[in-house]
Design goal:
Length: 274
């Protein structure tokens, strides 16, 4: 019975961490069915998501530092969206006043929702990491991954080489998380893949509700290619690198001598592999 209780508690914390992503999907779904006069759908989505973020902050569901991280991801995502739309990778066919270079401003929130989930899960599950490769290695790899999203339109796509580098750089890195006082751990690369897979599922839902369209979805909706999982896998790595480094910096400021490494072996605390 105890494992069931642990699983239910873990599921509850995961669900609470997904409040903002769920709000995005609900807004996409409802706005696709209910049309309000005097406002374009994309503009309405932006207004609703801004209100959701404000409500989460005022209610204490998100902290000021987490809002800052979300803003960083919004900018990173919006820049990538503008470039990808220009290159014809996908499009936002509906009109809106809040479009910038053909991209509605709400689109950055879809990237920011990943950051929101990570920040929430990190805090709720009291996460740590062991075997972190350091800012230089992680930062250079994250920068190369982000750059490849832009350059693969002109030079060969290095995503699979980059994925191999991920395994090399993070092969000793584990996520430590806690559920009702019990400590568990998971290889960070496995976490990358799992989050990327669930984002791919979410992407299928988003395109079904016309959040954006890939070229092969103009005539009729089709499931998003499974190859996109690799893209999300790499994008999640950028997200984790930024969130983890910011958590590391904050921890260092709060307590002198605090290390990012988990000092005590999780196995000694009764860690279970997940």
């Amino acid at each position: 019975m105890k494992p069931v209780v642990q699983l239910l508690h873990f599921g509850y914390q995961q669900a609470m961490s997904c409040i903002f992503p769920v709000a995005i999907f609900l807004t996409l779904a409802v706005s696709g069915v209910v049309q309000l006069p005097f406002i374009h759908r994309y503009d309405l989505i932006l207004v609703v998501l801004l209100l959701v973020q404000y409500g989460m902050y005022r209610s204490g569901l998100e902290t000021r530092d987490e809002i800052k991280v979300i803003c960083v991801f919004h900018i990173i995502g919006l820049a990538l969206e503008i470039y990808k739309v220009k290159m014809g990778s996908w499009s936002y066919p509906e009109p809106a006043l809040s479009k910038v270079f053909g991209v509605p401003l709400y689109s950055g929130f879809m990237y920011a929702s990943v950051a929101s989930y990570m920040c929430q899960a990190w805090r709720r599950l009291k996460m740590d990491m062991t075997g972190w490769p350091g800012l230089l290695a992680a930062g250079l790899l994250g920068g190369a991954i982000y750059l490849n999203f832009f350059t693969h339109h002109f030079i060969p796509d290095f995503r699979w080489w980059l994925a191999l580098l991920v395994l090399v750089v993070f092969w000793r890195t584990w996520i430590i998380y806690r559920v009702r006082g019990k400590v568990y751990r998971m290889p960070l690369t496995l976490a990358f893949f799992l989050v990327g897979f669930f984002i791919w599922l979410a992407e299928n839902i988003a395109t079904f509700f016309n959040a954006w369209k890939y070229p092969d979805q103009y005539e009729a909706w089709h499931p998003v290619s499974v190859s996109k999982i690799s893209s999300w896998f790499l994008l999640v790595i950028i997200s984790v690198i930024i969130v983890a480094q910011l958590k590391h910096v904050k921890a260092g400021r709060m307590a002198e001598g605090t290390k990012f490494e988990v000092v005590k072996d999780p196995a000694e605390e009764g860690a279970g592999n997940s």
